[in-house]
Design brief:
With 124 residues, the chain is mainly beta. Helices cover 6% and strands 35% of the residues. It has 1 helix and 7 strands; from the N terminus they run αβββββββ.
């Protein structure tokens, strides 16, 4: 998980993100004001999570930007925690707050592996 924590620190200063952990999984919360489900894409692939979000900004009639510091796009690629199950991930966005839930993989459960006798077909 430290790789994900480090990657979150490297996000641009204008991006606010929280990472939460429980026994069952992780929740990554990212503020994307102005973004919607239609303008946000989340992809889990090869041990990484890719987030692309686009916000809509309207300029009131008769005004123009003197200074523009709020980016229109977020394009982030973050490593998954090693125990996260990317296949079970889901995401939702509510009023510009993106929540990505990543369940933890079940820990290796010990089990007995049956041992079969080899066929004696080649023996005469």
């Amino acid at each position: 998980m430290s790789a994900l924590r480090d990657a979150l620190r490297d996000l641009p200063d204008a991006v606010f993100a929280d990472l939460l952990e429980s026994d069952e999984g992780y929740v990554l919360v990212i503020d994307l004001p102005g973004a919607t489900a239609e303008t946000t894409e989340v992809l889990v692939e090869d041990g990484r999570i890719e987030i692309e979000g686009r916000r809509e900004k309207a300029v009131p009639e008769g005004f123009e930007y003197v200074r523009e510091d709020r980016p229109l796009f977020l394009d982030a690629e973050l490593p998954l925690p090693t125990d996260a199950d990317g296949a079970g991930a889901d995401a939702e966005i509510d009023r510009g707050v993106l929540e990505i839930s990543l369940p933890k993989r079940e820990s290796d459960v010990s089990r007995t592996i049956p041992v079969d006798d080899a066929d004696d077909e080649g023996d005469a």
